[in-house]
Automatic annotation (TrEMBL):
SUPFAM superfamilies: NadA-like. [4Fe-4S] cluster binds at residues 111, 231, 321. The keyword Transferase applies. The gene is nadA. Keywords: 4Fe-4S, Cytoplasm, Iron, Iron-sulfur, Metal-binding, Pyridine nucleotide biosynthesis, Transferase. It catalyses: iminosuccinate + dihydroxyacetone phosphate = quinolinate + phosphate + 2 H2O + H(+). It is found in: Cytoplasm. InterPro entries: NadA, NadA_sf, Quinolinate_synth_A_type3. The lineage of its organism: Bacteria, Bacillati, Bacillota, Bacilli, Bacillales. Pathway: Cofactor biosynthesis; NAD(+) biosynthesis; quinolinate from iminoaspartate: step 1/1. It comes from the Bacteria. GO terms for molecular function: transferase activity. This is Quinolinate synthase. Its EC number is 2.5.1.72.
């Protein structure tokens, strides 16, 4: 692509500056008006990590699994304006009908973890692993991955997983093959396999940069191969954070997301998906104390919703997920006004051949949960 073309492309994808100059009251008013006007033709799913200014307008809020399921059953909406990150909008596009259009209010809302596995690296790694282990491996991918990776997993007999169903899906996978390649989050893979009784010394790590398997031992003992990827938000929760809470607030419960490193999960009290964290704290008795290890927009919302409980972030210096935060009220209003004006912006359209194979992986998950 010529540099000039690239500049044109960027301009087309970028929200006009005028949206930054309009007041929040006016933008909120416009979002409400368009929602009312389009009724059931418009559907806005919002992930729990979205900002309040956006989540306030969501028709459904949920974790990755809930949003995937909701997208799959919604046949009424002509427009799905996805408030989440790119891989979630791709999943929604693949699970909805052809006529339904999915928009992502800001194309820059990616996921650093999903970007840690591209299809070339995966094909190269797979070939090497096949040479080392033969036809003994089933690939599983966390939904936090590109449509291309989901398609790769689908055509190789595997499935997608979310943090809500990773345990069930790993059990399912072990019924198919003796080894699992888990992409792209090594922490979710390690935490889940460990919970199922796989010892840490039977887990190897595949480094897609060096194309090497990191493992001290006999390859025959390897049961799980973890892709060397991680979430840059959840990696910021440390053993020191847990130790600090234990010392200063010994009666505080520590609950973390399984994207946190193994050492952190191992010494916390509870670990689970965003839905699991929300439910655990909602059901906890008044006056109970909680330190939460997950994204900050969600932690702040949980704190606001439970004034009767003492709740803090496990890491006091934690920031929100920067890419989730790219979806803000101006971008939501821009996407909705573009529909109203008949010139929709930022449509997510996964190619048909990729969709066909990725849906195999998604459906194997949806049928097993
Ligand atoms: P869940 O909502 O499935 O727990 O996922 C967390 C996450 O990091 C999404 O990007
Ligand atoms: Fe990706 Fe982590 Fe942000 Fe979730 S919180 S979107 S995994 S970078």
């Amino acid at each position: 692509m010529e540099i000039l073309d690239m500049v044109e492309f960027d301009k087309k994808e970028a929200m006009p500056n005028s949206y930054k100059e309009r007041s929040y009251e006016e933008l909120e008013q416009r979002v409400l008006e368009i929602k009312q006007k389009l009724g059931k033709k418009l559907y806005i799913p919002g992930h729990h990590y979205q900002k309040d200014e956006v989540i306030n307008f969501a028709d459904t809020t949920g974790d990755s699994l809930q949003l995937a399921q909701a997208s799959a059953i919604n046949k009424e909406a002509e427009w799905v304006v996805f408030c989440g990150v790119h891989f979630m909008a791709e999943t929604a596009d693949m699970l909805t009908d052809k006529e339904q259009k999915v928009l992502l209010p800001d194309m820059r809302a990616g996921c650093s973890m999903a970007d840690m596995a591209n299809i070339n690296q995966t094909e190269i790694g797979w070939e090497k692993l096949q040479q080392m282990f033969g036809d003994t491996i089933l690939p599983l991918t966390y939904v936090n991955s590109t449509a291309d990776i989901k398609a790769f997993v689908g055509r190789n007999g595997g499935a997608t997983v979310t943090s809500s169903n990773a345990k069930n899906m790993l059990k399912w996978a072990f019924k198919q093959k003796e080894r699992i390649l888990f992409l792209p989050d090594q922490h979710l893979g390690r935490n889940t396999a460990y919970d199922l009784g796989v010892p840490l010394n039977q887990m190897a790590v595949w480094d897609p940069i060096t194309n090497q398997l990191e493992y001290d031992g006999n390859y025959e003992d390897v049961v799980v191969i973890l892709w060397k990827g991680h979430c840059s938000v959840h990696e910021k929760f440390t053993v020191k954070n847990v130790e600090h809470i234990r010392e200063t607030k010994p009666d505080m419960n520590i609950i973390v997301h399984p994207e946190c490193p193994r050492e952190v999960v191992a010494i916390s009290d509870y670990a689970g998906s965003t839905k699991y964290i929300i439910d655990a704290i909602s059901q906890a008795p008044s006056g109970s104390k909680w330190a939460i290890g997950t994204e900050m927009n969600l932690v702040k919302r949980i704190i606001d919703q439970h004034p009767d409980k003492e709740i803090v972030s496990l890491n006091p210096f934690m920031c929100p997920c920067l890419t989730m935060n790219r979806i803000d009220l101006p971008h939501l209003a821009w996407a909705l006004e573009s529909i109203e004006q008949g010139q929709p912006v930022n449509q997510i359209k996964v190619p048909e051949d990729v969709t066909k194979q990725a849906v195999l992986a998604l459906n194997r998950m949806l049928e097993n949960v």
